[in-house]
Amino acid sequence: MTRVATPLERRWRPDGPLDVTLTLSPLRRGAHDPTWRAEGGAVWRTCRTPYGPGTLRVTVDAREGAVRGQAWGPGAEWLLETLPAMLGADDDAAAFPALARNAGNGAEVVLRAHRSHPGLRIGRTMRAFEALVPAVLEQKVVGREAWRAWRWLLRRYGEPAPGPAPEGMRVFPEPEVWRKIPSWDWHRAGAEAVRARTIVNAARHADKLEATAEAGRDGSAAADRLLRALPGIGVWTSAEIRQRAHGDPDAVSVGDYHIPGIVGWALTGRRTDDEGMLALLAPYRGHRYRVTRLLEIAGHRPPPRGPRMPARDYRSF
């Protein structure tokens, strides 16, 4: 019989409404992400912490109004120490309703979404390279194509999750491992050479990226400059990373295939492009990512038009 190590534990009471699953869901990369699982009323997450691999299990005690974190592995203590930040303890949305009321077009739509999801917070993981790899894999492809590559690479190169994690969960590999993945395995995963090179090059700068992430939202601007100086990383990828690693509520994903249409449709009843989206979001500066997130989860999507973008399979090229 295999013995499971006793976890470290922490209880934390948020200072307001908190929807744990909704807040952590941006960290999930597809329905079968090996690093994220919602099961039995708990959210499980694995992480490559500064001290090594760790597994985190998060549950909510509704009677006490407290979050319970349990963690295993060398990174357990770090995961529990940073649990409040990951769940948005530093996310200050107090001024957001007043800002939205004065925003003009579509303000009531945004306020209604905010009222309907009071537990949404913008959390920060403080793990920039861990956010970078899946963001690069998602560049200019449909989600299911990127998520397939993410699963393949994690199952191949990630290590088993410490503790009693659900079967199949894996831990994000170290930067040095990403640097040494051979070209044929990138091909097997379905990631073409351009995205592979971007990840391999970024792995060489992982320490600098993590230093900006430790500064949280205050390090977001520095992270944006560093990220966009790396070949293959532009404004969209930088925003996707900073939303998760830095908890930046203003890091809007310019260049996204869906978000301009969502914003335009929700606020004006018409589709728009990136330029139009930024104009509509301008009154919400400081919270532009928060607005796009609220509109997404509220289901404000324009009706489908034309065929869906097909998933390519680079393994057959």
From TrEMBL:
Keywords: DNA damage, DNA repair. It is an enzyme of class 3 (hydrolase). GO terms for biological process: base-excision repair, AP site formation; DNA alkylation repair. It catalyses: Hydrolysis of alkylated DNA, releasing 3-methyladenine, 3-methylguanine, 7-methylguanine and 7-methyladenine. InterPro entries: Alkylbase_DNA_Glycosylase/TA (IPR051912), DNA_glycosylase (IPR011257), HhH-GPD_domain (IPR003265). Its EC number is 3.2.2.21. It comes from the Bacteria. GO terms for molecular function: alkylated DNA binding; DNA-3-methyladenine glycosylase activity; DNA-7-methylguanine glycosylase activity. One of its GO terms (cellular component) is protein-DNA complex. This is DNA-3-methyladenine glycosylase II.
